[in-house]
Amino acid sequence: MSKTGVSIARQGSDGAATRRAVHIVDDEAEFRDNLAELVTPLGVETLCYRSAEHFLSEYRPRPVECLVSDLRLPGASALGLQRMLIERNVLIQVIVISGFGATPDVVAAMQRGAADFLDKPVDEARLLAAVGDALDAAEQRLRECTTREAALQRLSKREREVLDLLVDARTTIEAANLLGISPKTVEKHRAKIFEKTGVGSVPELIRLVIG
């Protein structure tokens, strides 16, 4: 048990926390430990929590992570936890597990972005596949964010100002008036923005900025 009260079931072989992490939420200690044992072959750090509220109070984001939660928990359920994560803008892959999963629960979990919904008793192969896929998706998102940030950092101050106005759906003339420059200069800045970010249109540029 760590000083924060979070049970860290597994770490890297050198004792330091591994880059990939799996958060496990279940009110049964034995089941939490069993899940942590099952994902050991993936070489991940596992952190265990007894409830949704416990997870929210102790959660510290890792670069690449996913969350495995039992559907029925004391206090907020896994569906309630998903809702609270969305409200807090926490982007994390969620895998829901339940021995009582009904179709409405599965649909609700998936509508809120769950990566998978597994039945109890948990099939080890399917659990490993689901966790592996969730971590791969999280790592891909991290790479995309890193690439996006690097591209945007290459822009000059003026180019960022033009970019902000383009994302705000301002026309070339409106941007020129707001910045006190000519429309032709705005066009030149836009061309440089496209060149530096590698996009070919304003819609692509907006997707790059907002992710």
TrEMBL record:
UniProt-listed InterPro entries: CheY-like_superfamily, Sig_transdc_resp-reg_C-effctor, Sig_transdc_resp-reg_receiver, Tscrpt_reg_LuxR_C, WH-like_DNA-bd_sf
Keywords, sorted A to Z: DNA-binding, Phosphoprotein, Transcription, Transcription regulation
Record has Membrane as a keyword: no
Keyword field contains Transcription: yes
Domain of life: Bacteria
One Pfam family matching this protein: GerE
N-terminal signal peptide: none
This protein's name: Transcriptional regulatory protein FixJ
